[in-house]
Amino acid sequence: MLKKLKNNYFLLISTFLILYFFFNLLSGQRGLISYFEKKQTLNNLKKEELLLIKHINDLDFKNSLLSDNFDLDYIETLIRERFLFGKKNEIIYIIKKNDNKN
After folding, report:
1. What's the pLDDT tens digit per position in 41-61?
2. Which phi and psi angles does 29 have, rounded to 5°?
3. Using CA of residue 58, residue 61, residue 67, residue 71, what is the dihedral sign?
4. 85 φ/ψ angles, rounded to the nearest 5 degrees
5. Interatomic CA distance for residues 77 and 66, integer angstroms
6. What is the pTM for the complete model shown?
7. Does residue 72 have a pLDDT over 70?
8. How far apart are CA 65 and CA 2, in angstroms?
């Protein structure tokens, strides 16, 4: 038995090395599965970054409307939305979206 093992020593070592590298290729911190997970995380972060950039641009635009040169129409719109303020003899309707489905 020991003689056969000595004869096939190179075959055994190469088999174990191939299996070791194969499993590390698929799993592990730098494996193929981890690569796809990190790629998906990167795509999600890029989408979130685009949403945040759009939100920042929207806030910058709204801030510019409230700067030195007041846009009275925009201020009136803000007052009506936030404080439900209306003009004399004006009726304000609040329509709430019903998301409950029975």
Report:
1. 999 999 999 999 999 999 888
2. -70, -30
3. negative
4. -95, 140
5. 12
6. 0.50
7. yes
8. 87
Q: Which amino acid is at 16?
A: F
CA atoms within 13 A on the CB side of 31: 12
Query: Distance between CA 93 and CA 46 in Å, rounded?
Result: 39
DSSP 96: P
Mean pLDDT (the chain, rounded): 81
Phi, psi of 55 (to 5 degrees): -65, -40
* 8 Å CB contact between 26 and 32: yes
Q: What is the pLDDT of residues 19-34, one digit of tens each?
A: 988 888 888 778 888 8
d(CA 22, CA 45) in angstroms, rounded, equals 30
Which DSSP string corresponds to 25-74?
Answer: HHSSTTSHHHHHHHHHHHHHHHHHHHHHHHHHHHHHHHHHHTSSS--HHH
